[in-house]
Specification:
Number of strands of chain A: 12
Oligomer: heterodimer
Distance between the termini of chain A: 31 Å
CATH superfamily of the domain at 97-265 in chain B: MetI-like
CATH topology of the largest domain in chain A: Rossmann fold
Helix content of chain B: over 70%
Radius of gyration of chain A: 20 Å
Strand order of the largest sheet of chain A: 6-7-8-3-9-10-12-11
Shape of chain A: globular
Number of helices of chain A: 11
CATH class of the largest domain in chain A: Alpha Beta
Radius of gyration of chain B: 24 Å
Strand content of chain B: under 5%
Order of helices and strands of chain A: EEEHEEHEHHHHEHEHEEHHHEE
């Protein structure tokens, strides 16, 4: 498959800390890729770097991001940049606040579309919005289009955000924690929705999540991120059935455990991943690793377990 | 929606009733009355008694209060003891000047604050942001009487750009009108810019961190449209509320500037009324300005309510 998106040794930092420490990953056309990891590991920042929505105090210090062969970070010119971003759809983490509260769903969905397609009229944009809402399982799309965001449920907002992201003919859908803060019923609906989207021809997805159950149900490939870099990557079954890195193992184990057992069995994973020195050549997971060796404090290398399964660990 | 508007209007009417009651009580409590002032120090007791009867001051408290409210409802605040004219007429003659000063100074301050505050928030930490914060500091620390004198010296005495002391009605000459109010408008606007600019900047900084703002950028909404149709619309209710209440405050607070620039406004009329112990005029102005303040606040609230779909649909709950 042809490569659509790639991050190459991307470094980003705020005034005090490194946030991304040599992030390297790629997404091929039509595939669904997930980045998993704890809160604070840099997942959302990697999306921010791609979409140019990093916080004010965070800047990219080295590396590159390429989308369909074009260097995203050095992309100059408003029109060129807008054309590039019109091929990427984004569903944010907090869908409650992501729809502009003073506009109807119709206005929210059609405004950007009409700017990206100057020859499309309001009616055409509205028809496309209604069609997309219907295709995502929303009944009575015409009525929903005339509602304001405060009149919508959490699940409905999720769907509308997805539909808004699909308004343009996009090649890549980026979703940040799509299942966070959803109850189990809506979570299943959204999971099914993403599973159906992952089958759409030509549409690649980059999903950031700490919900491993969700990732397992939709991803083709998985990147495990820790302290601003990828520590293990592989096809979904390689990661879930045959994890190698102690951190990946712990994450998977943690996701399958009942809540009441977690505090006793894996207390070290409760610590923030952001507390480590991300710029050190040593293994960033070293202070929390149950199987550490002396060499891990000096440097750490990659091991190729198959063509697709790589791990940043000497074990 | 109608229920909220009716409720809001009723509460404003109640505030007006209470304010006028307080004004009545205050005028009753101060030593002397309108008849004594009108009769003068040489006035005989029969003249005072006759004037008291004319003004209705010889009646009982309850009757006077009822008469007072009846007069207010018919906009009859009595006859000025100093000018010998109807108080409503005097207020009407001066209102245009004060309203012009208050309205245009708030408009000027609002436009300046929105433009500079938005630009400062967009370029946080850059030149415009530092410049705007400096402007806030400088503007906030300059008293209006001092600034008025400085402006008079520079623009009138030294540069001869404007004539001071001859107020020209807009009906007579637009350029003369502008020339007669431009300096006091700028002085008042400078005083209002500090808090407005600070609030606009803070509101716009908050907006920049809103998810819908960042997503609007990603979805390709042009920056100008994102700033005007989205960000400003979302961020402005706070500054608009402040501007509305400041406008109401200015309607009763331009006395010093009017005096320095010799403008025949309500503020100057009020100073004269106090100086001459013109009780009907003082009472009339106090009540009229209080009503204007309540009215301005009501209009601000209603316009914000009508511009916000969530509030409209919720019928103003939580306001």
């Amino acid at each position: 498959m042809a490569e659509l998106l790639s991050f190459r040794s991307l470094y980003a930092s705020d005034e005090r800390h490194a946030i991304l420490a040599g992030l390297t990953l790629h997404v091929d056309r039509g595939e669904t890729v997930a980045i998993v990891g704890e809160s604070g590991c840099g997942k959302t920042m990697s999306i921010g770097a791609l979409l140019d929505i990093l916080p004010d105090d965070v800047s990219i210090t080295a590396g590159s991001i390429a989308f369909d062969g074009e260097d995203v970070l050095s992309c100059r010119g408003k029109e060129r940049k807008a054309r590039l971003y019109s091929r990427i759809g984004f569903v944010p983490q907090n869908t409650s606040d992501s729809l502009y509260p003073l506009m109807t769903v119709s206005e929210v969905m059609t405004d950007a579309y009409m700017h990206n397609h100057p020859d499309a009229g309001r009616r055409q944009a509205r028809e496309r919005a209604a069609m997309l809402l219907s295709s995502l399982g929303i009944e009575d799309a015409g009525r929903v289009l005339s509602l304001y965001p405060f009149q919508l449920s959490g699940g409905m907002k999720q769907r509308i955000n997805i539909a808004a992201a699909l308004m343009d003919d996009i090649d890549l859908l980026v979703a940040d924690e799509p299942t966070s803060a959803l109850d189990i019923h809506i979570r299943r609906q959204i999971e099914a929705l993403y599973a159906s989207l992952s089958g759409r021809e030509g549409l690649a997805m980059l999903v950031v999540s700490h919900d491993l159950g969700f990732v397992h149900s939709i991803a083709d490939r998985v990147y495990v991120m820790y302290a601003g870099r990828i520590i293990e990557e592989g096809m979904r079954d390689e990661i879930f059935s045959d994890p190698v890195h102690p951190y990946t193992k712990a994450l998977i184990e943690l996701s399958t455990m009942k809540t009441r057992d977690r505090a006793h069995d894996l207390p070290e994973l409760g610590r923030l991943a952001s507390a480590v020195d991300r710029e050190s050549p040593a293994c960033a997971f070293l202070p929390r690793c149950c199987c550490r060796r002396e060499s891990c404090a000096v440097s750490v290398g990659y091991a190729c377990l198959s063509d697709t399964h790589l791990v940043r660990c000497v074990l | 929606m109608g229920k909220y508007i009716a409720k809001r209007i009723l509460s404003s009417l109640a505030v007006m009733a209470i304010v006028s009651l307080v004004a009545f009580a205050a005028l009753e409590l101060i030593p002397g009355n309108a008849a004594l002032v009108a009769a003068g120090t040489e006035g005989s007791s029969s003249a005072v008694a006759s004037l008291s009867a004319e003004f209705g001051l010889d009646r009982g408290f309850g009757e006077r209060l009822l008469l007072y409210y009846r007069n207010i409802l018919s906009f009859d605040f009595g006859i000025s003891s100093y000018f010998g004219e109807n108080v409503s007429t005097l207020i009407g003659q001066r209102l245009g000047v004060t309203f012009s000063l208050a309205f245009f100074s708030i408009l000027l301050a609002f436009i300046f604050s929105v433009v500079l505050g938005s630009a400062a928030a967009l370029g946080k930490g850059r030149f415009l942001d530092i410049f705007s914060r400096t402007v806030v500091q400088i503007f906030s620390s300059m008293p209006s009487f001092w600034l008025s004198l400085v402006f008079l010296i520079i623009f009138s005495s030294m540069l001869h750009l404007v004539d001071v002391g001859d107020y020209v009605s807009p009906a007579v000459s637009i350029t003369g009108y502008i020339s007669s109010i431009i300096l006091p408008v700028i002085v008042l606007a400078i005083g209002e810019t500090g808090p407005l600019l600070r609030l606009v900047r803070a509101s716009m900084l908050r907006v920049r961190n809103e998810d819908w703002y960042r997503i609007g950028k990603v979805r390709g909404i042009p920056r100008i449209r994102l700033m005007t149709a989205y960000a400003l619309r979302y961020a402005l209710p706070g500054p608009l509320t402040l501007a509305g209440s400041e406008l109401a405050k200015l309607l009763g607070g331009t006395a010093i500037v009017e005096s320095i620039f010799a403008l025949p406004g309500l503020g100057r009329l009020f100073l004269t009324a106090v100086e001459m112990r013109d009780i009907p005029l003082v009472g009339g102005i106090v009540i009229f300005v209080s009503f204007l303040v309540v009215l301005m606040n009501l209009l601000t609230d209603l316009s914000l309510f009508l511009s916000n779909p969530a509030m409209r649909k919720a019928g103003g709950m939580g306001l």
